[in-house]
Amino acid sequence: MNCERYENELYDLAELFKIFGDSTRIKILFVLCDSEMNVGELAETLNMTQSAISHQLKILKQSKLVKSRRDGKSIIYAIADEHVKSIIQIGMEHIEE
Predict the structure, then answer these.
(1) What range does the domain containing 88 cover?
(2) pLDDT band at 46 (very low <50, low <70, confident <90, very high)
(3) What does the pLDDT read at residue 22?
(4) Three-state DSSP class for 68?
(5) Could you give the 3-state DSSP secondary structure of residue 86?
(6) Helices H, strands E: what count in the chain?
(7) Number of domains making up the chain
(8) pLDDT of residue 5
(9) Do 23 and 38 meet the contact criterion of CB atoms below 8 Å apart?
(10) Average of pLDDT values for 23-40?
(11) Maximum CA pair distance of the chain?
């Protein structure tokens, strides 16, 4: 395979995997694989501050790994698509071998 032909895509792929390189972001994604949650619920579930969760959600949203929707006064976060769930599941399978 010619890497030069895919230079831009490989750079983007490396940037995507950098996002997965943070344990807090992985925890957020893992929890969101099961259900949608708002910042407060995520903070309680992960025993972290809402500020820390919000900061990581911003990064995850910018990277298109998480999506959000408004529900009254709350913003509900969810995994962006099935690809994200697959990456988490395949990663878990790999480390459990």
Answers:
(1) 4-96
(2) very high
(3) 95
(4) strand
(5) helix
(6) 5, 2
(7) 1
(8) 84
(9) no
(10) 97
(11) 50
